[in-house]
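Continuing from the previous page of notes. For each protein in this section, the sequence appears first, followed by its structure tokens. Read the first protein now.
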Amino acid sequence: TRIEFLFLIDHDDKFKKKYKELLKKYKKYFLIKIYINKGIKFNSERINFLAKRSNGKILFSVSDDMIIKTKNWDSLIDLETSKFNENTPYCIWPSVDANKYKFLHCAFPIISRKWFNILKYHSYPKFYHFYTDTWICELSKITGKFLLLKKLLIKTFHPENNPKYADKTYFRLRNNSKNYNDKLIFYRHRNIRKMHALKLINNS
């Protein structure tokens, strides 16, 4: 009853009407908020747009290339997060069957509301699409404010693991990302990452 789903649908998406009709069926079970995207280009901006409009104490960014395999995953997250003080920033790392990068522990990190309120973002806004999860995981490692939740299993359907999962969205992101260099931003903004880690530590 406390789960809140927020969706951002591109205004020119050919399935926009079908998405809205489908979500309407579930509104009697969940709190669902639907927004239409009319100009947001960066994926990090999309996520931050929704995060700012959410009310939950826990922020879990999900996508269409993953499935949560664990039953009662919401109750499990509830149980584990109860171990933290509500005013403490923290991050939870689910167990993912296949990570895209060896240096990235988790492709779907979960953050607390306090974490978001301190940094004023969920995904580092300088990124176009890639390295957002890596950034969060790096902050987690620097601060030590994370919990490895092995019982929460996520199965991925990412094109880099299996080409058959490549769709139009994947190719659009890939083509558009040629104009940006998230990897370069990640390494050049190392000092900013350390500063943001200190913010999390000092505001605990």
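Done with the first. The second protein uses the same format. Note its length before scrolling.
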Amino acid sequence: VLLQRTTPCLATTAGKVLARFAEQVALLESEMLGEVGAPDDPASSHLRLPIAVNADSLDSWFLAVFETVPNDAAISFDIRTEDQDHSAVLLREGTVMAAVSASPLPVQGCAVEPLGVMRYLAVTSPAHAARHFPAGVTADSLAHAPMLTFNMKDGLQERFIARFTAEAIRPPTHYIPSANGFVEVAKRGLGWGMMPELHVSRALTAGELVEIAPGHHLD
């Protein structure tokens, strides 16, 4: 069974896998025809390539990927933003053909290629740090200091907190679903959060942001 006869019609799990396979075959066929010099077929041009990328990567290094794409490439990119800890689910469902993921485990029908390390630092404004972490990071200060989170799937802050306490603490939380907005509200002292070193290095040098626990980064 490949389709659910609902309104609108939806693909089943098997249907999504089959759709992803068909897109992969079409892409391979297009590459092969280009290599052997076959004439262009307008009907098969501009293949759709859905890719899942986390917002931090999309707003930093990932855009450089498009510099390697030929101008005459018959590909239409369909970029989906998804948390790096959850993007592999979209691959498993067949929603995308590729994904930037924190998981080293290959999804069936896919291969894994290491891309590198993205370092996250726990940062906030100097005023926020002085007010909420005067004696450094402790279980008590983390429980009361306002915290920034990208969305409900963002687990980086919880992973950082787990390094300092095994308690299930629930600090006041602001949800900021924007990579650049995340940095800007931190500068304004709204809360602390885990941010890519790429994004905040300049603000740290300028003194607009500070690390609340130097040396305690997440890679």
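What the second structure shows: The mean pLDDT is 89. The beta strands are 3-4, 10-11, 47-53, 75-81, 98-99, 120-124, 147-149, 173-175, 193-196, 210-211. We return to this in next week's lecture.
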